[in-house]
Amino acid sequence: AIKYNAPGVVITFGYDTPERIREELEKLLKKYIEEYDPGEFKEDVKRYEYKIPEAIGEKFAIFHSLALYYHISKTLQTLGIKPEGKGEFTIKDMKKFCNVYSSYELCLNLNMLEMDMKRLGKVRAGTDWEIYGRLINKNFKETDAEKLLRDDRAKRNFYAHSGLENNIVAVRKGDNGEILLKYREEMRSVVERFLYDDHVYERVCEGEG
Predict the structure, then answer these.
(1) Given 61, 70, 96, 182, which is the most exposed site by the fewest CB atoms within 10 A?
(2) What is residue 27's three-state secondary structure?
(3) Is residue 54 pLDDT above 50, yes or no?
């Protein structure tokens, strides 16, 4: 969700705590050492037999990914973004991800998020939940989850607008006048599918959407 600039997904669905990630890293490291470590070095031993791991590049990638995830998790906690997630989020919540993107030099994400937050700030929402598309597009036609999954334009819009695809997000004004957002319950499976579709994301980054 961070790679694809969808801060609302992290805020809503949550993430693993640093403790949980570290626990898994330690399990992997222990297993790796037990399987491949030739043992303590001894001066009188001139030859050691090393068991070469299968798919070693893949194993390194897993370790590196978990290590990065650990660091990201700590950063999110520092910013006050809770691991357990929450049902609603605000522009202020999304703005915290500007710090995340700056930390990891995700300049494109930062620019796109800032533009979308500015657009959100101009939305005139009522106190009842309304589909986002109806508030920003007078010609908006609602699309159900099944059709969205087959619609490449919807996927491109999800990536290009900080995870705020018109059909997926609902908006309302809170008691203090602040804009509140949430992912519609019936659209959560669509959000999960979009996040794993690397091919569409790569086309967006190349300027095709």
Answers:
(1) 61
(2) helix
(3) yes
